[in-house]
């Protein structure tokens, strides 16, 4: 499948147990063979297809993205994205959030993945920390992931911990100074988004 151009809309779809689980329209910032960068704009409305495992954001009534937006860096094959967060009207950079997820797979309308709950936070003014271990283990117990998947996610977490401990991060710190094009409208879900097939 082809690559996207800056400014294109790409649908970030989470697929759980072989069925679409959530869909977020994102704005493409950069799409190169070794790096896909997308932005989730403030106010972006999420799509939640019907699913036997209801999405927790849908259960909580979280219908759209709040805050200043987030930038996500993806390398092919990585079992995590590197997400950047800013705070306040001045967009003060807050830090890097390593979101464990299935390696992204391209689709005609964007890319597929699945959030794996376990995360790592690297603030600009302090040491890194692990997040949501209890939530992840609870999801394992409830059957969201099978034993092999759970082991692979734990191993990916160990790899991330080793990288952070060694200070061997690969991403360019200059991304912290990035800002969205003010002319970009908030991307929306296209007609028929519920029905586009799995790759």
UniProtKB/TrEMBL annotation:
Task: Give GO terms: molecular function aspect only.
Answer: hydrolase activity
Q: Gene3D superfamilies attached here? A: FomD-like
Report the SUPFAM superfamilies cross-referenced here: FomD-like (SSF159234)
| Stretches assigned to the DUF402 domain | 55-167
Q: From what superkingdom does this record's organism come?
A: Bacteria
Q: Which Pfam families match?
A: DUF402
Instruction: Recite the UniProt keywords alphabetically.
Output: Hydrolase
Q: What is this protein called?
A: DUF402 domain-containing protein
